[in-house]
């Protein structure tokens, strides 16, 4: 069962903490790591924008992705939040089993 790393940028620590806590508490993710001091440059509504953000690295089971996306959309203040899932093609087997178990999936 594949593990995923889901990237999600947040505008501030309060938003990042709220999303991380909800995802882990609701067993949609095993672990969420918040990386501070991310600087995003992007085009939005015809202008180049720059934002200081926190980047969440969300570890989850692939079976939980749809529910995880729905929960982020419900909690995130952005009109179009960044939610990008990348499959972990390998890793320490006991850790990957733990990710599945903590995400509410039988390993």
Automatic annotation (TrEMBL):
One of its GO terms (molecular function) is copper ion binding. GO terms for biological process: response to metal ion. InterPro entries: Ion_tolerance_CutA, N-reg_PII-like_a/b, N-reg_PII/ATP_PRibTrfase_C. It comes from the Bacteria. SUPFAM superfamilies: GlnB-like. Belongs to the CutA family. This is Divalent cation tolerance protein. The lineage of its organism: Bacteria, Pseudomonadati, Pseudomonadota, Gammaproteobacteria, Lysobacterales.
